[in-house]
């Protein structure tokens, strides 16, 4: 019985930790490198929008997340790109989203 309660408690704590990460914003001390640029090419079909790449902070280092063509969720939707905003002596990451 004790083992089941411990396992359940660990699962709940893990889900809570994941939910806390889902807010879309986090902070790092180092500024991101300059953005990378590449040839975008043509959309794969109607209704697709290019979502720009961005620098992501993973495991203590910067990792480039490349851009991609994504289908807009509804006509007229606009992609707001991910960005790093200076916040005091740190940088705050805001994930990209559809508006």
Shape: extended
Largest sheet: 3 strands, antiparallel
Class of secondary structure makeup: alpha+beta
Strands across the major sheet, in which order?
1-8-7
Helical content stands at 10-25%
Intertermini distance: 49 Å
Q: Write down the secondary-structure element order.
A: HEEEEEEEEE
Number of strands: 9
Number of helices: 1
Strand content: 35-45%
Give Rg in angstroms. 18 Å
Poorly predicted runs of 5 or more residues:
14-22
What's the overall average pLDDT, rounded? 84
What does this protein look like?
The protein is α+β, with helices and mostly antiparallel strands and 99 residues long. Helices cover 20% and strands 36% of the residues. It contains one helix and nine strands, in the order H-E-E-E-E-E-E-E-E-E. It has a three-stranded antiparallel β-sheet with strand order 1-8-7, with no helix packed on it. The chain has a two-stranded antiparallel ribbon with strand order 2-5. A two-stranded antiparallel ribbon has the order 3-4. The longest helix is centred in the first third of the chain and has 20 residues, at 2-21. It is extended and about 55 Å long. The termini are far apart.
What's a concise summary of this model?
The chain has 99 residues and is α+β, with helices and mostly antiparallel strands. The protein has 1 helix and 9 strands, in the order H-E-E-E-E-E-E-E-E-E.
SSE blueprint:
Layout: H1 2-21, E1 25-28, E2 48-51, E3 54-58, E4 61-65, E5 68-71, E6 79-80, E7 83-87, E8 90-94, E9 97-98
Antiparallel strand pairs: 1-8, 2-5, 3-4, 6-9, 7-8
């Amino acid at each position: 019985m004790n083992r089941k309660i411990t396992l359940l408690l660990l699962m709940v704590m893990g889900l809570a930790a994941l939910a806390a990460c889902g807010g879309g914003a986090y902070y790092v001390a180092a500024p991101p490198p300059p953005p990378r640029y590449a040839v975008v090419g043509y959309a794969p079909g109607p209704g697709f929008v290019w979502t720009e790449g961005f620098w992501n902070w993973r495991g203590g280092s910067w990792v480039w997340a490349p851009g991609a063509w994504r289908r807009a969720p509804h006509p007229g939707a606009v992609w707001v790109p991910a960005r790093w905003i200076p916040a005091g002596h740190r940088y705050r990451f805001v994930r990209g989203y559809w508006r």
